[in-house]
Amino acid sequence: MTDSVLENMREWLAQHEDELLEQYRKLLQFPSIESDPGPNAPFGDANRQALDYMLSLASDAGMQTKDIEGYCGYGEFGQGEKMVMTLGHLDVVPVGHGWKHEPFGAEIDDGYVFARGAVDDKGPTMAAFFAARALKECYPDLGCRFRAVFGCNEESGFKCVERYNETEEPPTFGVAPDSDWPLVHAEKGIANLIVEAPLIQGDVELLEITGGQRPNIVIDSCTARVKVADDARQHVADKIEDAWDRNVRTSWSGDVLTVEAIGKAAHGARPYGGDSAAIRVLRHLREITPLPVQEEYESLFEIPQLQGEGIGIQGADEVSGALSCNLGIIETTDSHLRFTLNVRYPVTWKGEELKRRCEEKLAEIDKGYRLAEMTDSPSLYFPLDHPMVKAICEVYEAETGETKEPGVMGGGTYARAVPNTVSIGTGWAGDGQAHETDEKLKIEHLFKMSRIYAHILYRLVNLAEESP
I need a surface site. Which of 45, 49, 81, 114 has the fewest CB within 10 A? Predict the structure, then answer.
């Protein structure tokens, strides 16, 4: 590794900061939430447009491009058997409520860019792309290939990287810019558990309840409707009068009571950082309902507890800490209530054990609850002495002067789906949180990321060139 190459890359990036900011803001203006599929657009037109934009930038930069049927695409340069890769995603989660800035306006305010996807993951993806461009321009003697991959389905299924793995080779070393600094060496397992429960009958009959957009977002608004029997009306009315939760509103239409709640969205991997409107609604129904029906609502309220104790899956390990459980979607269908629970389980656990424990707990409750569906994405774990882990840590310390240990996260990135890949950091204090309202990234941090990414890519290219 020579200082002159790194210095040239830093200088190139400094000269292209205005271009980086302009293209970043343009990318943010595509409302790339998953929508109905179209021709060569399996995740909707907006994702297709965002992918076309990035492929056009890669082509303009002199890279060879490939569109993998609209699932994902990439720009590539260099030659050789070994290959280093970055994987960023262009899709974003739904917007939610309470934004002060236009979610797809990419507005600049006080040195920050505000937009859905600013941090997760369009800022890091664009910064990594410019780092790749700097590598291409300043290291013409590249001894391997480099590939910048752009996915379109990270937030709702990973179908993009599944398709990539079916048609393309794995990298020698890969990084997904979508986590914490310097990198995350362990990602918890991610399971979506759909628990069904019979709709409650009796004096306070549950007609419907609706809330949530995606399993991996804390529910920020929820509505329920219950039919109240005449002999329970006064009890319910008195309890509503004494209710303490000012985030819950109620209204009557004949004998039907509507209960609405407002909460706060957050990433499903960090449910404590949000405020579940659905849990507020379930708690309110439990508190206003007379016995014995109250016991039925108490059981429903227990299901979405944040550490999984309501369905018997609570626990922890030494590497990654405690399990978390987020109620991402609640809905009624036919005669059942459906809870979609997004679970982040410890890296030393297996999904089969999670399923067994949940089924045993639901049988123990003995109220007709059942585990209707389960999807599982196993955990990722790289030892601390892995060459790629050590190299990234060394680069981060060299660039920032800060020594940090690799982290563990409950979130899931592309790294868990592509061999030989880890996720790396994306921002610093002051930047917005993924999946929250008014998501933002400091412009200065966008430029700083691009410099660190460039150094990481150069170091990984050197590792690939030296590897047997």
Answer: 81
